[in-house]
Amino acid sequence: MTLHDVCSSLREWTRRVWGAFGGRRTDHDLQRELAGHLALAEDELRRKGHAPRDAARLARAAAGGHSQALEALREQRGLPWLGSSWLDVRLGLRLLVRNWGLTLVGGLATTLAISIAAIVFAAFDVVMWSRLPLDEGDRVVAIQVWDREAGRRRDTTWQDVERWRASLQSVDDVGAFQTTRRNIITSDGSVELAAVAEISAAGFRVARVAPLVGRPIADADAAPGAAPVVVIGHDVWQRRFAGSRDVIGRELRLGADVHTVVGVMPDGFQFPFNFRYWVPLRRTADGMLRNTGPEGVVFGRLAPGATLARAHAEVLALGILAPAHRSAEHGTEPALRSAEHGTEPALRSAEREGGRVVPYTFAFTGDFEPGDMSLLWSLSSLGLVLLLLPPCANIAILNYARTVSRQKEFAARYALGGSRARIIWQLFIEALVLTAAAAGVTLLVVQVVSVVVAGRLQNIPGGPPFWMTFGLSSRTLLFVAGLAVAGAAVSGLVPALQATGRLARLGAGALAGRTSVRLGATWTTLVIAQVAFSVGVLPLAAELAWGTLRTGVIGPGFAAEAFATARVAPEAERLVLAADEASRQVASGPETARRQRAVLFGNRQRELARRLLADPGILGVAAALQPPGEEPWVFVDIEGRDISTEVDVLNGRPPGFLARFNQVETAFFDIYQVPTLAGRRFTEGDVATEAAAVIVNRNFAETIAPGALRQAQGAVSAPNGANPLGRRFRYVRTTGSEWVHAPEADRWYEVVGVVGNLPVTTDARVAYHAAAPGRIQPAHLQLRLRGDPAGLAERLRDLAASVDPTLQVDEVRTLAEIYREHRFGDNLGAITIGAVTGSLLLLSAAGLYALMAFTVAQRRREIGIRSALGAQPGQLMAAVFRRAFWQLGAGSAAGILAAYLTGRYVPIEQIGGLPIPGILPGAAAFMLLVGVLASLGPARRGLRIDPTEALRSE
Amino acid sequence: MPNREPAKAEVLRGTLDLMVLQTLAALGPQHGYAIGARLEQVSAGALTLNMGTLYPGLMRLEQQGLVKAEWGVTDNNRQARFYAITAAGRRRLAADKKAWDQMVAVMHTLFEDPA
Q1: Considering only CA atoms, which of A606, A587, A741, A780 is closest in space to residue A661?
Q2: Among partner residues A2, A5, A36, which is closest to B78 by beta-carbon distance?
Q3: Average pLDDT, stretch A380-400?
Q4: Which of A261, A732, A800, A815 could form a disulfide with A563 if both were Cys (CB 3.0 to 4.6 A apart)?
Q5: Rounded-to-integer distance, Cα A418 and Cα A87, Å
């Protein structure tokens, strides 16, 4: 086929598509041409001597059928199947309106299923497929140190960064950034805590965006002793400097330092993450670039002609320096040797760790291998598609029952020349109308959810990265369209194939309404499966939803607005030293420096607490590692007790039970007015000596000494002698886990007291350790309030800045807000489960009703004959219900068995649900009732009919 | 009414396009009736095209850009649509003629080969 042939074909099909929607040649035009042909033929015959009437007749005979010719022209003019599909769409819409029950129930269930799938897809789309909106953004890469054994990133040494910068051929402009948080203090004293990018000068070259005013960060700005400079974002320029052009040279106070503004970036520029302040990146004292979260990424741009694979191979070959060879600690240049030369390696084992190059946006998705995300997506997409199956299968059953009742219509069309394929196509289009309507609603839902999520993410400190835009992408549109087609295929094609399978054999009998369609084994199985699904799975979903919703419905059970929490942290490794503190500063190693910083921070914390207590709106202050409800999780092993039966749901490894731990000051329990149920509270001795004393909450105590605690005051032992006091336990560290603030693993701790469960953690087991001020960094101050908490955040920041301008305060929330945040995700999940459950139950009931009604209606002839032969109404009803009860009973039994087995191996409490007494028999009874009602109506109508009428109508 | 097949010839698929293009190239713009009459005359009555075959074929050629059409008046004052070959049509005609000649030569050799 030549190029000309291809062009000709394309032209033809383009014009045919245009012709399908009207086009240039109308039917009138076509008829005119054909009439002209006939007239010319007639003229020719008359010239040959034929009479006018004969000439006309012979001309028509020779020219062929006029109607057939016109039909052939119409088919060539457009795409006949497209035109007729439009008629099918209109018919489908009429059917939707006529069968509004099916439309409502089926549409709701399908919309829910497609919406859930689309929302998950949209989330993946944003996280996995967002492109960096920079010039050739897909060539910007991140370079990481990857621990293959642990499957996570490691911190990078400065030496490695400099080696990469100097040696790599396939990556240009290698640079790095770290995130720090600084108090931006204005001249009027107001404090704003902001994320600041400490970034290499290469960052602006990689981004390829020039400043709007002034210059970017230069390499010289990072030199030791260079004056502190800052580049600001457009909105900062507008907000703080009124967009003045003479902003260059103005000063901006970041924490303890005054920076000079040297440049302003254009509106929308937020590289490398979502920053509005950029300062030079200086080498840290320990020579490490932290890799936690978005803090600490090495980036670069692929050199012209280089590929990601080549860059990755080059970085891998370069190797990674072992941490012991940091020049900052040893004061010497690292002895860089290659393992190739057979010398003692200064490089880390390449088998365990190595460098890797990944797309820049991928570096922020977490500790994944590039293939992991694809696998995760593949599995998720399979699950999402399967989510469509229950509603579509139900609709398929309803459609089948309706389709079978249209046998007369299909038989007539078949007799007139319509093909089975055409009829099936029509039924598919009718189903597609419903799923397309559901897809349309889904697009609205996705758009709304995107707006809500984007709004919530903006409220998170820092917000999402600048390359993530939330909304409907073309990929999401295509995905939703694909789901609509898939749903129509399941709910329309399958029943259509079944219902039209015997068209060719039906013959004239079908036109008279006589069909041989019966619900065979397939559909009986479907009825049983549907009942089993409803009885077995839906109660489980309801219990899961209730377990999640219950606390939200009942409420926290205390005055959550009267408590607040605030995160307090020093600026990284910085504190403004008072004169007496400076004289005592002796830096002689990292451990000593850390202890001294702890003392300094502790001084700040005490002073801040003192000033807070002077505020009439604050009744109490105590620091903790985390606020209640957000404590870290740990595994706990009790001395002398085998708890290996508890399932380690995370990695199936060491024995132990899941609990939370917290580090708290002595006043913590007084803040929350938590009673002491046994033993004692923390003393100063526990704090000072880092003792092994631990206080546990009631849930924890009940786990280690079941039945030990009674309602009665002072009861500390159960009849069997169990006593939580004095019991020892230790924390179990799983292999490869990283604990940021974990207590020491394998050290034995002793329970010295038991307190009541704190609000928000009523379901958790919690262990509390004593901590002195300064030992917890950052610390969460727990505040007991008097009155309205409005303005608390600003008061706290101002007070903290007055103690030390480098003290940062953020995450100021009341416990009610924490509660709502926790509940938001749970509530959303529960409402989703509840809505899906409810719609599926409704759909199952409707499907069951339609099938049962159809089955009984098909037996009218039999009922009529038996009635004519003298059968009693009771006998007839029994025959009808016998079959119905068999199907319903089999389905209910299968469902109950499935629910029992599921509950035995996966108790509902373990997955966050709560048992609802009687829900299982209730679901079975509900489905039985639906089946009975479905059978009753048609059976009674069948009994009332005259037997001769029933025989005649068949 | 179906096409009347030639007594001892079978119209090959795609040859109608070739016949129409050749007719228009040789005779200039013609209406559909004249094209059909020409083909019947040249084939000595062996090939008779009815409207249901001729006009869809002309429409297809027009859609492919190989012919163009416009309304006109015949010698005996009848309204008819006149078809004329385009440059693309001439290129297609040349290519198809070449392919046809090659096929004919091959078949001739096959038929004449005593072995």
Answers
A1: A741
A2: A36
A3: 74
A4: A815
A5: 15
Task: Cis check for the bond before A272: say yes or no (omega within 30 of 0).
Answer: yes
Length of chain A: 954
**What angle separates helix A538-554 from helix A873-905, to the nearest 10 degrees?**
60
By C-alpha distance, the chain A residue nearest B62 is A12
Residue A673's Cβ-side half-sphere holds a number of Cα atoms within 13 Å equal to 8
Residues in chain B within 8 Å Cβ distance of A4: 88, 91-92, 95
Partner residue facing A69 (CB), from B51, B65, B66: B51
Question: Which token pair is A852?
Answer: 């049962």
The answer to whether B28 faces chain A, any CB pair under 8 Å, is: no
Q: Does B94 touch chain A (CB under 8 A)?
A: no
- Confidence bin at A715 (pLDDT 50/70/90): very low
The total of other beta-carbon atoms located within 10 Å of residue A387's CB is 18
Q: Which residue of A has its CA nearest to B56?
A: A73
Question: Coil, strand or helix: which one is B80?
Answer: strand
Cα–Cα distance for residue pair A950/A943, rounded to 1 Å: 10
Of residues A435 and A642, the one with the higher pLDDT is: A435
- Tens-place pLDDT, residues A528-567: 877 787 788 777 777 777 766 666 656 666 677 889 999 9
A932 contacts A884 by C-beta, under 8 angstroms = yes
The minimum CA-CA distance between A60 and chain B, rounded to whole Å, is: 10
**Residue A446 burial (10 A CB sphere; 0-12, 13-18, 19+):** buried
> Are B56 and A34 in contact (CB < 8 Å)?
no
Res A573: pLDDT: 53
- Say how many C-beta atoms besides its own lie within 10 A of residue B66's C-beta: 26
- Tell me if B33 and A37 make a contact (CB, 8 A cut-off): yes
**How many angstroms separate the CA atoms of A112 and A119, rounded?**
11
Asked if residue A899 lies in contact with residue A539, where contact means CB atoms within 8 angstroms, the answer is yes
Identity of residue A62: A
Q: By CB neighbour count within 10 A (0-12 exposed, 13-18 middle, 19+ buried), where does A880 fall? A: buried
Closest in B63, B65, B76 to A43, CB measured: B76
Residue labelled with tokens 């280690």: A704
Distance from CA of A446 to the nearest CA of B (A): 42
**Two structure tokens written together for A258:** 């005054």
- Ranges of H-type helices in A493-643: 494-499, 503-506, 508-511, 521-536, 538-554, 579-584, 590-613
- Top residue of A37, A46, A70 to mutate, by most chain B CBs within 10 Å, is A37
Torsion on CA atoms A460, A466, A472, A477, rounded to nearest 10: -130
> Which chain B residues are closer than 8 Å to A76 by Cβ?
56, 59-60, 63
Question: Is the distance from CB of A779 to CB of A810 less than 8 angstroms?
Answer: no
**What residues form DSSP beta bridges with A145?**
A154, A355
Task: Give the DSSP H/E element, type plus range, for residue A299.
Answer: strand A297-302
Q: What are phi and psi of A169, to 5 degrees?
A: -95, -30
The reply to whether B98 touches chain A by the CB within 8 Å rule is no
A648 by Cβ neighbours in 10 Å (0-12 / 13-18 / 19+) ranks as middle
* Average per-residue pLDDT for chain A: 79
The residue of chain B with its CA nearest to that of A47 is: B76
Q: How far is A12 from chain B (nearest CA, A)?
A: 5
Ranges A281-295, A480-494, A908-922: which has the least confidence: A281-295
- Six-digit token string for A502: 């015997």
Suggest the residue from B4, B16, B33 to mutate for an interface test with chain A (most A CBs closer than 10 A).
B33
Pairwise CA distance, residues A932 & A853, whole Å: 10
Inter-chain touch B59–A73, beta carbons under 8 Å: yes
Helices and strands, counts by H and E, chain B? 4, 3
Place of tokens 């600690």: A329
Residue recorded with tokens 């159809």? A854
